[in-house]
Amino acid sequence: MYNTSKPQFKVPPHVPPHLVMDFQEEKDPGFATDPFGVLRRLAENAPPLLYTPEHWRCVGTGCWVVTSDEYAREVLQNPDPFCNTIRFSRDQAQWTRRLLPLESDPPEHMKYRAALAPLFSPKAIDAIERDVYRVANEHLDKIAKSGHTDFMHTFARVFPGTIFMMMMGMPLEMKDQFFYWEEKVFHGGTFEEKQQVAKDIVSFMTDLIQEKRRKPGEDIITSLTKAKVDGRPITDDEVYDICNTLYFAGLDTVNAAQGHIWRYLAEHPEAQAELRANPPLVRDAIEELLRVHSVNGSSRVLKRDYDFHGVQMKAGERVWINPELTGWDPKVYPDPFKVDFHRSATPHLAFGGGPHRCAGSHLARRELRIGLSEWLRRIPEWRIEPGATPTYFTDGVLSLRNLPLVWDGSKAI
Q1: Cis bond leading into 101, ω under 30°?
Q2: Is 4 part of any domain?
Q3: Helix-helix angle 361-378:236-267, to 10 degrees
């Protein structure tokens, strides 16, 4: 799989030959059913920094790949020279504008982050905790006694998606439409479908922002319309671009994380039993499982030539940070492939790092903790349906396509 002698594309002359690896995990036939196994084989042999002549996550060009926790933190914490202003490809034409504050760098970045941060602070999340419990149990009510479900469709997607709609002030009667948009944007939509969904979302969000200005509510969009950026009122375009970031960054990631956590527990009943016997351990278990199953990397572009640990990087080159690999760094995590709910600390990069660290991490953690705690309280030991083969979406966030679970419905609460 990792052919270092015959790269398909030309390697720039400044790249040391011993750092060149053909890092294209998605071409491994096992990636769709065992992506973490494929990545583990790479992690066991990869240097802290490598160069791949072609990488699908870097828009089909060559790029640097960071596998070391130390190196990754250095990249994420230094917007000069590791720039985030140009992060996503625009060649697919459906999202032609910036995602704010994601696609900006300090000092501009902080002007938008300041407007966003209070809306996802621990205090703000405390205020909606009762709603998170309520929504989790509304969805559990629909499936608990049945004894079976495809978890990804009946809980992993709709639980955080409903919370997102409530926080944003979107009409909940549009849930079916909203989840259809989400599915087409993130997974499985044709190019034409994605273009049409993009137009539909633009129209919907533009109208909703105007409505919130006319009829303010207790929601994130209303709060954003009242925000100021660098001392001036925020524009509708800026509110729209921030809402797009929340849509892209907040929906599929929690969905994916739930799938990995619930699958691990389905395959390890002893871990389920341990959490049932010690409910406060759920918090640490989530952090450990996020470390082992990180779902979404990030990239940066060099704004100037730079010497990075003795390696020459050139302006315009892309650097990919792979949190699945950094979470397995043996220098930081002894016995890194072992899942241990009792590790003293898990300072993983599942939520990124530096100035662009995920603004919604408090919400994500709360949803994961409450969702899992309520499942453990109401659902007896669950396992993957016999004969079923879970598969993965590999086009972006590493997420399960399906997760058929079964349990004894007569024992459910």
Answers
A1: yes
A2: no
A3: 40
Q: How many domains does the chain have?
A: 1
Query: What are the pLDDT digits (tens) for 240-291?
Result: 999 988 887 767 889 999 999 999 999 999 999 999 999 999 999 999 999 9
**8 A C-beta contact, residue 372 and residue 365:** no
How do residues 177-231 score in pLDDT, each as one tens digit? 888 888 887 776 777 888 888 888 888 999 999 999 999 999 999 999 999 999 9
Is 270 within a domain? Answer: yes
Nearest alpha-carbon partner for 74 in 86, 66, 84, 63: 66
Residue with tokens 């979107």: 170
End-to-end CA distance of the chain: 47
Q: SS3 for 272?
A: helix
Q: Please give the single-letter amino acid code of residue 54.
A: E
For residue 81, cis peptide bond before it (omega within 30 degrees of 0): yes
Return d(Cα 375, Cα 276) in angstroms, integer.
10
CATH number assigned to the domain comprising residue 338:
1.10.630.10
Distance CA 199, CA 222 (A): 22
Helix axes 191-214, 236-267, angle to 10 degrees: 120
1 lies in some domain: no
Instruction: Using DSSP, state whether 239 is helix, strand or coil.
Output: helix
- Domain hosting 199: range is 17-411
